[in-house]
């Protein structure tokens, strides 16, 4: 039976909305996630416009609170957490494993519609007037005192959590049961290892945040004494539950990004990845250790000093497997034949920005410094270097790396390189001044500030405009390439991996015959040249 590729096999809307093809579902996720990325980005740009001057010139305090809540919720729960797993994971995992699809195709489509349903609740909350609690929903303000649409937004996030759980379950079963013959665990691409570790975190952590937000809604709706001390509740219980999920959630964002970088670096260095087992096991170590460090978000919450010391030590330890990856990527590039193409520029940008974010994370693991800069812009800069500078750089690097496989077309390399450099420069100009602001004492979440902080805020806002332009460029030229881009061929990068052994774009069921794997991962010694791109 002749199989048409996943793009040309039916142009009808119904064929897309009811598809079970993991590649089409990945593209639908791409559209939805891109939409939320720009919603969150617009909220951020309005905030940076407000912060150009020390006084409230654009929005008032209540509106500003709603803006940073919308920015945080959309970026964290609807872009950063699902971004790489839902788009690149969905598209690539079966291809990398030599499978015809994910283990549960209908469940995969269901998870997309659950994501859309949860996102709709969140959009409804924003349209109806917004939420002013911040993305952390700290109680008892969120559960009792806020007069905004907390329940609606909390329900949206709760629903979306089920989408993540179903996706993680699908990835785990697919990895265990649908690998091609000869594809042993230590021949797997490191992206698969990263997605596997991420899926474990999703399955173990997401139910906790779902239950926590449900309890907030119950206390708010029925005045049950769970978190509000006036009702006999404990507000610190919420923080423990929230951060027990939300710190591992950082690794839900970053681990897939690390998997992407582990694919790009050896390809554009034309070398076998250095220390494959260490990178693979470091992903699993991050997944495990990430569940033991939530208390470093609560150093000033009144917890025991002894608990603080334990969480401080564990926070230092969790940096080790991340450092292993950075050292191994660097060792892979050593004496390699480096090709500075667009994906590689994004990968190098990731390493630089993630390293800064990681080093400042080690600084914050020290109790004395954390107490000084807690709730200042130092924290804002730190987690943006990890989650934006790290995750989004890798996301864009992965999109550019696999775009020829996704679309069958090449994008203009000049514009790709330019966008990568603009994003890197704009990001550093936006967030590095915030380290200084935070250390000098400027608190976050305020829309007014002392005049002596204005110069650094102007620099940060200028950087945000540059960063926004850098993010907009790929949207333009990637869409352009769909019609006008040069045809890519099956393997334009001359890369290893089963996904490059299918046509571009791949047929509906990926492989005409089940492939058999006979060589180790990243066997670039036999293909030292990059290819014609």
Topology:
Blueprint: H1 13-17, H2 22-50, H3 61-80, H4 83-97, H5 105-128, H6 141-145, H7 150-177, H8 190-222, H9 235-269, H10 276-289, H11 305-333, H12 342-364, H13 367-373, H14 377-407, H15 413-440, H16 454-484
Average pLDDT, rounded to a whole number, is 94
Number of strands: 0
Q: Examine the secondary-structure arrangement and name the CATH architecture.
A: Up-down Bundle
Largest sheet: none
Strand content: under 5%
Radius of gyration: 23 Å
- By DSSP (H or I, 4+ residues per run), the number of helices equals 16
CATH homolog superfamily: Cytochrome c oxidase-like, subunit I domain
Walk me through this protein's architecture:
This protein has 533 residues and is an all-alpha fold. It has a single domain, classed as Cytochrome C Oxidase, Chain A (Up-down Bundle). Helix content is 67%, strand content 0%. It has helices at residues 13-17, 22-50, 61-80, 83-97, 105-128, 141-145, 150-177, 190-222, 235-269, 276-289, 305-333, 342-364, 367-373, 377-407, 413-440, 454-484. The protein is globular, with a radius of gyration of 23 Å. The two termini are 33 Å apart. The mean pLDDT is 94.
């Amino acid at each position: 039976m002749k199989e048409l590729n996943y793009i040309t096999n039916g142009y009808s809307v119904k064929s897309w909305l009811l598809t079970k093809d993991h590649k089409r579902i990945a593209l639908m996720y791409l559209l939805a996630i891109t939409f939320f990325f720009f919603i969150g980005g617009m909220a951020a740009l309005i905030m940076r416009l407000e912060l150009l001057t020390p006084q409230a010139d654009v929005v008032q305090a209540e509106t500003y609170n709603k803006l940073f809540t919308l920015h945080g919720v959309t970026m964290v729960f609807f872009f950063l957490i699902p971004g790489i797993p839902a788009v690149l994971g969905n598209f690539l995992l079966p291809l990398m494993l030599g499978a015809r699809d994910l283990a549960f195709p209908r469940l995969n489509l269901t998870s997309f519609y659950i994501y859309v349903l949860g996102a709709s609740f969140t959009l409804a909350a924003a349209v109806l007037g917004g939420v002013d609690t911040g993305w952390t929903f700290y109680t008892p303000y969120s559960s009792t005192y806020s007069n905004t649409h907390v329940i609606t937004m909390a329900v949206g996030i709760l629903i979306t959590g089920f989408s993540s759980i179903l996706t993680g379950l699908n990835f785990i079963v697919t990895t265990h049961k649908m690998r091609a013959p000869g594809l042993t665990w230590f021949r797997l691409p490191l992206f698969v290892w990263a997605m596997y570790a991420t899926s474990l975190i999703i399955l173990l952590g997401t139910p906790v945040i779902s239950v926590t937000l449900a309890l907030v809604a119950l206390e708010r709706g029925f005045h049950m004494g769970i978190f509000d001390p006036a009702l006999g509740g404990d507000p610190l219980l919420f923080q423990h539950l929230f951060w027990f999920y939300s710190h591992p959630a950082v690794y839900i964002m970053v681990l897939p990004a690390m998997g992407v970088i582990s694919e790009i670096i050896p390809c554009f260095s034309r070398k076998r990845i250095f220390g494959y087992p260490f990178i693979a096991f470091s992903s699993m170590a991050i997944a495990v250790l990430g569940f033991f460090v939530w208390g470093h978000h609560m150093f000033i919450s009144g917890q025991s000093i002894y608990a603080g010391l334990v969480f401080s030590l564990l926070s230092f330890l969790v940096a080790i497997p991340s450092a292993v990856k950075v050292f191994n990527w660097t060792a892979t590039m050593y004496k390699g034949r480096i090709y500075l193409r667009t994906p590689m520029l994004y990968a190098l940008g990731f390493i630089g920005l993630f390293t800064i974010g990681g080093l400042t994370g080690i600084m914050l693991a020290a109790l004395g410094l954390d107490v000084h800069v807690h709730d200042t812009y130092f924290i804002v800069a730190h987690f943006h270097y990890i989650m934006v500078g790290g995750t989004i750089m890798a996301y864009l690097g992965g999109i550019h790396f696999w775009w020829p496989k996704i679309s069958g077309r090449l994008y203009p390399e000049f514009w790709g390189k330019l966008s990568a450099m603009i994003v890197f420069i704009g990001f550093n100009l936006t967030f590095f001044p915030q380290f200084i602001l935070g250390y000098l004492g400027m608190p976050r979440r305020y829309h007014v500030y002392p005049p002596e902080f204005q110069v650094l805020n102007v620099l940060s806002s200028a950087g945000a405009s540059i960063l926004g332009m850098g993010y907009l460029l790929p949207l333009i030229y990637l869409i352009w390439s769909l019609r006008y881009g040069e045809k890519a061929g099956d393997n334009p990068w001359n890369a290893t991996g089963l996904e490059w052994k299918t046509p571009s774009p791949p047929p509906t069921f990926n492989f005409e015959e089940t492939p058999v794997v006979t060589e180790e991962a990243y066997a670039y010694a036999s293909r030292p040249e990059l290819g014609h791109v």
